[in-house]
Specification:
The complex is a heterodimer. Chain A has one domain. About 0% of the residues of chain A have low confidence. Helices cover about 40% and strands about 10% of the residues of chain A. By secondary structure, chain A is of the alpha/beta class. In chain A, strand 5 and strand 6 form a beta hairpin. Chain A has 16 helices and eleven strands. Chain A is globular. By secondary structure, chain B is of the alpha+beta class. In chain B, about 50% of the residues lie in helices and about 10% in strands. Chain B contains 14 helices and seven strands. In chain B, strand 3 and strand 4 form a beta hairpin. The chains are: A alpha/beta, B alpha+beta. Chains A and B meet through helix 1 and helix 15 of A and helix 12 of B. Chain A: It is found in: Mitochondrion.
Chain lengths: ~400, ~400
């Protein structure tokens, strides 16, 4: 709006106040006739290439309901899905790069680890969602943690582990995650080849027999919540065995992975002591899955500044969004070697594309100089841009 | 003698304000002399109570005249005493400072006072001063009539003789102009465009200044009349002939050309032009801002991008001068800021950008930037907390008991 203000000032550059009606007039619609192809009809993420960069594609409702029914998209983005009545993602370079890699890597070699990193609000989770959609379409077994913060900071309950001394179970979260896993892989889990490799004795009376299906194991975890955390760990082992055997191809996607290494959590023992993440049962299973000692798998994790910021008041001058800082020594050594993928700020082209999308969805009213002004103000940060567009 | 004063008041005889001050002092002396002369005679005649030779003059002395003379005498005595005191004080001061009292000037006095009575008071007029009594005590008008009560000035009965004298002069000049114009027309001569009176950068003296000059009160309506008459005179084609008279009543505005002269850009190593504004300030923030042209709109603040500021207000502050001067995406900006908070730093950068952009925009844009207030330094600072109050203005909660 600054341009309109400046224009009005120059037009009425006397000392009189500018009448309000002029300001309203400035905000009036001035239809921008630029009709760029900011959408792509290519709805299959495996066919996305560099040609589709900065274009929007729609995830079909059926896919979204399966993939992201129990989370997986950021909250603000979910609000936009509701507002725009469609799930549209922008095809961006990091996601396309990873998809290309996933297409070309040799799955007989140890699992490749990707680390998505970038400043707050650049779209790491959205990129992850894009890759997940690719994996879903290409029949990967998806092991997806929507947000590790839900375990470490917003856990529903915590109890001492019955099987392992000194460990803490997050049973409700674990059961919710099992449900999420079952929903995402509903089709694949019907495969009769997915069997467990050993007898599992839960208690004296309860047990799961060898060669019963994975689905049974998951059902047990959901129904008997006491065992949900252990169930997740056992499931992780079984998935590794199955992948190694070549029965399934697995994609592990974990959002906010650095939280597994951040010493401060909001999980407390009975004595109100803070629990270190490696004393939480769930951590073990997911760290197991992110090792490189298996094949037929790929691992994508994101590291997020938000973890650190939430815990510490004020920002640390040494604060950085790079994986080495966020993962810490142990986390870095755990993941090393990995492929870092930077999620950059918006380029000008991407910015124009998203503004066109907003205008098409009638989310913002156009005015002269809008794109340039907002690009400067948001500094190319997608999240900030969404914030500034709220009032337009 | 009073006619002389009248002449001295005619501003077209004065070259400038300094001369005016000089002459006003002269007038004061004249006034004093006249008052002294008249009062001594009168005092003599009144105090002795003896029969007076000049019986007529005593009879004609009205009550008003007598009261006036008393007042004038008192004032003059007071002023004389003050003047003597000042002279003695000055000599003392000179001795204290180890200077020659004879050559001790007013500037020396000011320096000595500042040295001997250092004052931390913010307002300059609240600090100790030592000035000649003429400057300290307000001037008073001298008698405008002789002992018989007959006024000296022909405009005496207007009540504002000096003011109307000015208007009278204006009209005289206008009439002269008409005559001159007619004669020139007869000769088929046009006014010289080279000599055309240039009044830009100056304005008519304020009402208070006019009042001080004529030693009379002037109403708003009379001041308007004055301005109208002067405007009319100065708009005449041959007004440059009375330039001196007109310029006496004009004061210069702030010297714009000096203040708003753009900084000359320096050529950088990469061949681009850059302008650096040092010590841009606002509130507690201070820093240097460099504008580089041509550029692509890249901005660097303490090594970061626009994300250095988290709020939209600060970001808009920085963007506004660029959009206003239509230079967005045409220049690069580098800023190094220290101290202060976000709004102060953003304001300082905005000021620095605007100040530097003058080198890259045309005169017209620069003028509109000035009108928009972009080139005006923001002097506002945080107001201090007061003792006995919760804050700068906020009071503690008041409870009856």
């Amino acid at each position: 709006m600054l341009k309109a203000t400046a224009y009005l000032f120059l037009k009425h550059s006397t000392h009189r106040a500018i009448p309000t009606r002029y300001l309203t007039a400035a905000a009036e619609l001035q239809q921008d006739e630029r009709l760029q192809s900011f959408r792509t009809q290519e709805a299959d993420p495996s066919k996305h290439s560099k040609d589709h960069l900065a274009q929007f594609y729609t995830i079909p409702l059926s896919d979204r309901n399966v993939l992201f029914q129990h989370g997986g998209l950021p909250k603000t983005f979910q609000q936009h899905i509701k507002t725009f009545n469609e799930t549209c993602l922008m095809v961006r370079e990091p996601a396309v790069d990873i998809i290309n890699c996933l297409k070309s890597i040799d799955y007989d070699k140890p699992a490749v680890r990707f680390v998505l990193y970038g400043k707050n609000g650049t779209g790491k989770s959205i990129s992850l969602a894009h890759v997940l959609h690719y994996a879903f379409k290409n029949k990967f077994l998806i092991v997806h943690v929507p947000w590790v913060g839900d375990f470490m900071r917003h856990c529903k309950d915590s109890s001492n582990s019955e099987t392992r001394e000194g460990f803490i179970d997050l049973n409700i979260n674990a059961a919710a995650w099992l449900l999420h896993f079952r929903t995402q892989n509903a089709e694949l889990l019907k495969n009769p080849d997915l069997k467990i490799s050993r007898d599992i004795q839960w208690t004296k009376r309860e047990s799961t027999a060898k060669d019963s299906s994975i689905l049974e194991l998951i059902e047990h975890g959901i129904n008997r919540m006491r065992f949900a955390s252990d169930c997740v760990n056992i499931l992780a082992e079984e998935i590794k065995l199955l992948s190694n055997a070549g029965i399934c191809k697995t994609l592990v996607a974990i959002d906010g992975f650095n939280e597994f290494f951040y010493p401060t959590t909001k999980v407390y023992t009975e004595k109100k002591e803070i629990v270190h993440p490696n004393k939480i049962t769930l951590t073990e299973g997911f760290l197991n899955l992110t090792k490189f000692d298996w094949k037929n798998a790929a691992v994508i994790v994101t590291v997020d500044e938000m973890t650190v910021k939430v815990h510490e008041e004020g920002t640390d001058p040494s604060m950085s969004h790079f994986p080495r800082f966020l993962l810490g020594k142990h986390g870095f050594e755990h993941l090393d070697p990995f492929l870092p993928v930077n999620v950059p700020l918006f380029s000008k082209k991407e910015h124009e594309s998203i503004m066109d999308y907003f205008r098409e969805r009638r989310w913002v009213r156009p005015y002269p100089g809008q794109d340039e002004e907002l690009y400067f103000l948001s500094g190319g940060n997608p999240f900030t841009l969404l914030d500034y567009c709220k009032s337009l | 003698m009073m006619r002389k004063i009248g002449i001295a008041f005619r501003p077209h005889n004065l070259l400038n304000i300094q001369n005016w001050l000089l002459s006003s002092r002269k007038i004061l002396e004249i006034r004093t002399l006249s008052a002294q002369a008249s009062s001594t005679t009168e005092i003599g005649s009144i105090d002795t109570g003896a029969p007076v030779e000049n019986g007529d003059s005593k009879k004609n002395l009205s009550k008003a005249m007598k009261a006036y003379l008393d007042r004038a005498r008192e004032h003059d005595e007071f002023m004389n005493a003050q003047r003597v005191e000042f002279e003695i004080g000055k000599r003392h001061l000179a001795n204290m400072m180890g200077e020659n009292p004879e050559t001790f000037t007013q500037a020396d006095i000011d320096n000595a006072i500042e040295y001997l009575f250092p004052s931390g008071l913010y307002q300059k007029h609240a600090r100790p001063i030592m000035k000649p009594p003429e400057e300290v005590f307000p001037q008073r008008k001298a008698a405008e009539f002789d002992e018989t009560g007959r006024p000296y000035h022909f405009l005496f009965y207007t009540g504002r003789s000096n003011f109307y004298q000015v208007l009278y002069d204006v009209v005289e000049h206008i009439n002269e102009m008409y005559k001159f114009e007619d004669s020139m027309t007869r000769k088929n001569l046009q006014p010289d465009p080279m000599l055309k009176l240039n009044l830009s950068g100056t304005e008519w003296i304020a009402k208070s200044a006019l009042e001080f000059r004529v030693v009379e009160t002037v109403s708003d309506r009379e001041y308007n009349t004055f301005v109208t008459a002067m405007d009319r005179l100065s708009n005449m084609p041959f007004a440059y002939k009375v330039k001196d008279f007109i310029m006496e009543y004009r004061v210069s505005l702030m010297n714009q050309s000096e203040t708003y002269d753009a900084i000359k850009p320096q050529i950088r190593e990469d061949g681009r032009e850059s302008v650096t504004v040092y010590e841009c300030r606002r509130k507690r923030a201070i820093g240097n801002v460099t504008v580089i042209s041509p550029g692509t709109g890249k901005i660097t603040i303490n090594g970061q991008g626009i994300s250095y500021f988290e709020g939209i207000q600060e970001r808009e502050q920085i963007l506004f001068p660029l959009i206003f001067s239509n230079m967005q995406n045409k220049v690069d900006i580098e800023a190094e800021m220290q101290n202060g908070g976000p709004s102060g730093q953003a304001g300082a950068i905005r000021y620095g950008i605007s100040w530097a952009l003058r080198s890259f925009v045309d005169q017209e844009t620069m003028e509109s930037m000035r009108l928009a207030g972009l080139l005006t330094f923001d002097i506002r600072v945080r107001e201090r907390k007061k003792p006995g109050q919760a804050g700068a203005r906020r009071k503690f909660t008041w409870k009856k008991r």
